[in-house]
């Protein structure tokens, strides 16, 4: 009780400034003491944030952790979806391959997080919550021992003063000896603790390079994880692309011609052959073919069926205007016109030649410059349009009329203008290119041609369907489709076609006349 009372009195004296606390650490160790607290704070916050980045739960076995990874559940979902869709579908193939990939990525992630947890997170936790707190605990214990030593020294000095005043009392000398022993013992305990604390502090300073290596390990492990993940993904990508490239059922509208032909293994684009073959059977005598607009819903349905390679010939044979509209749309939605951007100037220059004998040869030269895929499909289409003109007395589609409604869908510039600009000299020049090629198709492309290349189309009986159409937009169009029909150039609207026809009659004849 007496010792505790003396310690409290000594502490109170130090607090109010009546006694000085002995400082037993040198300046370097005092700086280390301040640094300890900073390192502890940084290590604690880094450990906390880094642990929050882990997707797996800490402190559980590997199997349980793996099952709860988001990537694992995603992989399982994809594999189950693939089983439901089957390997016959492209989606099924993709889901299976991607599911297996996600599962492998999950294993890589699990290995990565386990390494991070073992080599970075746990050491940071030990540093912030064990090593530094132990040193700080020792520092507090040293402060207590210093207080004991100061208290014992004070008592001894007070006893010495008292013994000087009453030197005749034997008990006073014995008490002083006891207090001196107590002071020496307190100093000895303090020195032992101070030496141990100093050793731990110096060791902490020396191990800073080890603590810094935790963060080097973090980056190295992250780099290895991402490298393995990238290698895994790069090894799978060729398989994914192979599935995509070998899948025949691909959209053809809006896709480059050569890409569609390469994927489908065809020489003639599927929409061109399908539409031409059906029109040969059911639309050659249809008045206003390519000029009269079809029902918007019918056209949309037919384009969608052509896009997925499924076509009910019997159904659409009753609607030749929808077939013509689908063909017209395909030509206009090509990323590059069938007659190509590169040859645009060649075509225009040929149409500007005034010499009637030289102009056909210039057009032929431009035809021969077309890439093979474009040349084959252009020849196929021109041969069909030439055949269509054989029925012009019935269908009213002369070479000039056909050139007006189809020409802008076969050749255009990179910079497309508005409808007014379409009725300029340039548009008339395009018409002046197409009309003579249709008129003299056998001269430009000698020889016969087989239209039904695949032989997949029947021969329904032709009926006239003009009573179902007018030059106005289809009555079953919704408001958005009706607006798009009025504004879009893909394909040209009926109103625009009629305007072009009237304008062409007034000003277009000078572009068309030449002899072979």
TrEMBL record:
Annotated Gene Ontology cellular component terms: dendritic spine; leading edge membrane; postsynaptic density; presynaptic active zone; recycling endosome
Predominant subcellular localization, coarse grouping: other
GO molecular function (one): GTPase activator activity
UniProt key word DNA-binding: no
SMART domains: BAR (SM00721), RhoGAP (SM00324)
Compositionally biased region (Basic and acidic residues): 479-489
Subcellular location: Cell projection, Dendrite; Cell projection, Dendritic spine; Presynapse; Recycling endosome
Chain segments carrying region Disordered: 470-492
Record flagged with keyword Phosphoprotein: yes
Keywords annotated in UniProt: Cell projection, Endosome, GTPase activation, Phosphoprotein, Synapse
BAR domain mapped to chain residues: 14-249
One of the protein's GO biological processes: signal transduction
Domain annotation Rho-GAP: ranges: 255-445
PROSITE patterns found in the cross-reference section: BAR, RHOGAP
Its biological purpose: GTPase-activating protein (GAP) that stimulates the GTPase activity of Rho-type GTPases. Thereby, controls Rho-type GTPases cycling between their active GTP-bound and inactive GDP-bound states. Acts as a GAP at least for CDC42 and RAC1. In neurons, is involved in dendritic spine formation and synaptic plasticity in a specific RAC1-GAP activity. Limits the initiation of exploratory dendritic filopodia. Recruited to actin-patches that seed filopodia, binds specifically to plasma membrane sections that are deformed inward by acto-myosin mediated contractile forces.
Subunit structure of this chain's protein: Interacts with BST2 (via cytoplasmic domain). Interacts (probably via PDZ-binding motif) with SHANK3 (via PDZ domain); the interaction takes place in dendritic spines and promotes GRIA1 exocytosis.
Record's protein name: Rho GTPase-activating protein 44
Organism: Mastacembelus armatus (zig-zag eel)
Phylogenetic lineage: Eukaryota, Metazoa, Chordata, Craniata, Vertebrata
């Amino acid at each position: 009780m007496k010792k505790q009372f003396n310690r409290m009195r000594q502490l109170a004296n130090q607090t109010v400034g009546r006694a000085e606390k002995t400082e037993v650490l040198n300046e370097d160790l005092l700086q280390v003491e301040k640094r300890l607290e900073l390192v502890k704070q940084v290590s604690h916050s880094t450990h906390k944030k880094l642990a929050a980045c882990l997707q797996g739960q800490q402190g559980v076995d590997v199997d349980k952790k793996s099952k709860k990874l988001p990537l694992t559940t995603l992989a399982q979902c994809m594999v189950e979806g693939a089983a439901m869709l089957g390997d016959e579908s492209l989606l099924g193939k993709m889901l299976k391959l991607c599911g297996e990939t996600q599962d492998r990525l999950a294993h890589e992630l699990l290995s990565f997080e386990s390494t991070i947890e073992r080599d970075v997170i746990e050491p940071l936790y030990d540093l912030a919550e064990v090593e530094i707190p132990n040193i700080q605990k020792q520092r507090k214990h040293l402060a207590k021992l210093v207080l004991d030593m100061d208290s014992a020294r004070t008592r001894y000095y007070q006893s010495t003063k008292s013994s000087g005043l009453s030197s005749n009392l034997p008990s006073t000398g014995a008490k002083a000896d006891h207090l001196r022993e107590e002071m020496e013992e307190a100093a000895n305990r303090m020195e032992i603790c101070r030496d141990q604390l100093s050793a731990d502090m110096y060791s902490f300073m020396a191990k800073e390079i080890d603590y810094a290596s935790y963060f080097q390990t973090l980056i190295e492990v992250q780099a290895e994880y991402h490298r393995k993940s990238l290698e895994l993904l790069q090894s799978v990508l060729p398989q994914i692309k192979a599935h995509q490239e070998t899948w025949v059922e691909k959209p053809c509208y809006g896709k480059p011609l050569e890409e569609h032909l390469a994927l489908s293994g065809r020489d003639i684009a599927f929409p061109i052959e399908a539409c031409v073959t059906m029109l040969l059977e059911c639309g050659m005598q249809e008045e206003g073919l390519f000029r009269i607009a079809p029902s918007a819903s019918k056209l949309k349905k037919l384009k969608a069926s052509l896009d997925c390679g499924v076509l009910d010939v019997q159904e659409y044979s009753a609607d030749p205007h929808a077939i013509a509209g689908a063909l017209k749309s395909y030509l206009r939605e090509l990323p590059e016109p069938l007659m190509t951007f590169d040859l645009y100037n060649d075509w225009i220059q040929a149409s500007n030649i005034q010499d009637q004998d030289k102009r056909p040869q210039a057009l032929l030269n431009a035809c021969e410059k077309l890439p093979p895929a474009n040349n084959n499909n252009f020849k196929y289409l021109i041969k069909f349009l030439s055949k269509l003109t054989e029925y012009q007395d019935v269908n009213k589609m002369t070479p000039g009329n056909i050139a007006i409604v189809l020409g802008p869908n076969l050749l255009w510039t990179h910079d497309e203008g508005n409808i007014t600009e379409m009725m300029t000299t340039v548009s008339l020049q395009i018409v002046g290119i197409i009309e003579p090629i249709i008129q003299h198709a056998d001269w430009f492309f000698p020889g016969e041609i087989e239209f039904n290349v695949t032989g997949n189309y029947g021969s329904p009986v032709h009926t006239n369907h003009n009573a179902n159409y007018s030059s106005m937009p289809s009555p079953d169009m919704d408001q958005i489709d009706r607006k798009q029909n009025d504004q879009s150039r893909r394909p040209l609207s009926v109103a625009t076609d009629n305007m072009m026809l009237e304008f062409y009659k007034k000003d277009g004849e000078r572009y068309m006349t030449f002899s072979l």
